[in-house]
Specification:
signal, 3 helices, mainly alpha, Lipoprotein, 46% helix
């Protein structure tokens, strides 16, 4: 009886510790090989007015404008 209790305790300890193992974390979701400046081919409400899809320089300029006008907290302070 003593050996069966020890074996049962070891089995329970093994089961409990196996739940603590870390699972492999892999990236999931949308994977795209397209460059960001190629756009999504969506209608104008989803794109900036002056931006041309596929033009890298135009995309970089729009990102600079968006950063300075909408996301720069120092520009918002009076």
């Amino acid at each position: 009886m003593n050996k069966s209790v020890i074996v049962l305790c070891l089995a329970l300890a093994t089961l409990a510790l196996s739940a603590c193992a870390e699972r492999e974390q892999t990236a999931s979701g949308i994977k795209s090989d397209a460059a960001p400046y190629n756009g999504t081919n969506r209608p104008p409400p989803f794109t900036a007015a002056g931006w041309k899809a596929g033009d890298r320089n135009s995309w970089e300029q729009e990102m600079k404008v968006r950063t300075m006008q909408g996301q720069n907290e120092y520009a918002k302070v009076p």
